């Protein structure tokens, strides 16, 4: 005979998120910026004044003007249109890569922390090896082995973020598995998978979600860096990193090619960091009290 054991949530205050946003006014700026960037990416076909792939050699390397608000590139393509469509690549790569890394990393961290012993040491040893490489260098090696494509770029970035997620999930799991409600559930005959899924995961998922917003900013920077060196999405698909690369090659003649995509990356990363700070304050009672 088994009975259902309720696992108390560790600090879940309904107004915690609202309180964190109220105390941190900059979080509203981050939320507004991110919402605007997402809307621009969604409605790119409606907002882009020109086809981002259309070439016009007659209008090549024109500076910002009333006709081309952000100028044109060396092929005569409108920079504003390519910038708008490039937001889609950055957001999709960042979101999907972090989602994959969060699912795999959190699962590894929970299982390793719950089982412990040699298995925990083995998994953490492998993750420590991954963490010993700088994120960009590890992503570069994986992307170079897989080849340049959207799918391979997502895989490369996801692999670089698995280890941090695993560490974030493992630490609270080690503490939670000693709690009374877990022991009570185990005494009632609950299996290991049920305990991890119903009692441990809900009590540490907020930490993982908070970090995902911060690491999505890192994923977008990595995507831009890999695209800059030619290991991102193949041309002519517009990406912010490849636009910066072209601007770097023409920095003396066409400053706008590198400046505007760099500003787009800066604003996106800033928005995610500001939003992540608010989510962290909402999840951490000590941050809210201070």
UniProtKB/TrEMBL annotation:
Chief localisation class: membrane
Membrane topology, as annotated: Multi-pass membrane protein
Cellular compartments annotated: Cell membrane
Record key words, sorted: Cell membrane, Membrane, Peptide transport, Protein transport, Transmembrane, Transmembrane helix, Transport
ABC transmembrane type-1 domain ranges (all copies): 87-276
Annotated TM spans: 26-50, 91-116, 136-160, 254-276
Highest taxon in the source lineage: Bacteria
Statement: the UniProt record of this protein carries the keyword Transmembrane: yes
GO cellular component: plasma membrane
The UniProt record lists the keyword Nucleus: no
Gene Ontology BP terms: peptide transport; protein transport; transmembrane transport
InterPro entries per record: BP-dependent_transpt_permease, MetI-like, MetI-like_sf, OppC_N
Gene3D superfamilies xref list: MetI-like
Similarity comment: Belongs to the binding-protein-dependent transport system permease family.
Protein name in the entry: ABC transporter permease
């Amino acid at each position: 005979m088994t009975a259902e054991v309720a696992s108390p949530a560790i600090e879940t205050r309904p107004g915690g998120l609202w309180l964190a946003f109220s105390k941190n006014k900059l979080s509203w700026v981050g939320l507004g910026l991110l919402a605007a960037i997402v809307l621009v990416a969604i409605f790119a076909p409606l907002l882009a004044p020109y086809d981002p792939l259309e070439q016009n050699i007659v209008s090549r390397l024109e500076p910002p003007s009333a006709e081309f608000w952000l100028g044109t590139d060396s092929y005569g393509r409108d920079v504003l249109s390519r910038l708008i469509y490039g937001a889609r690549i950055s957001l999709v790569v960042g979101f999907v890569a972090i989602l994959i890394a969060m699912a795999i990393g959190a699962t590894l961290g929970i299982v390793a922390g719950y089982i412990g012993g040699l298995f925990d040491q083995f998994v953490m040893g492998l993750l420590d090896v991954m963490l010993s490489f700088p994120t960009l260098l590890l992503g570069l090696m994986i992307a170079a082995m897989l080849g340049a494509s959207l799918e391979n770029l997502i895989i490369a970035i996801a692999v670089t973020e698995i280890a941090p997620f695993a560490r974030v999930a493992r630490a609270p799991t080690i503490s939670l598995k000693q709690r009374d409600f877990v022991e009570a559930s185990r005494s009632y005959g609950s299996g290991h998978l049920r305990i991890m899924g119903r009692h441990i995961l809900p009590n540490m998922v907020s930490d993982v979600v908070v970090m995902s917003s911060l690491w999505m900013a890192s994923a977008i920077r990595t995507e831009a860096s890999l695209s800059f060196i030619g290991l991102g999405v193949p041309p002519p698909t517009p990406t912010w990193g490849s636009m910066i690369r072209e601007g770097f090659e023409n920095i003396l003649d066409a400053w706008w090619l590198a400046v505007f995509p760099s500003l787009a990356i800066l604003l996106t990363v800033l928005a995610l960091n500001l939003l992540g700070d608010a989510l962290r304050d909402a999840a951490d009672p000590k941050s809210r009290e201070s």
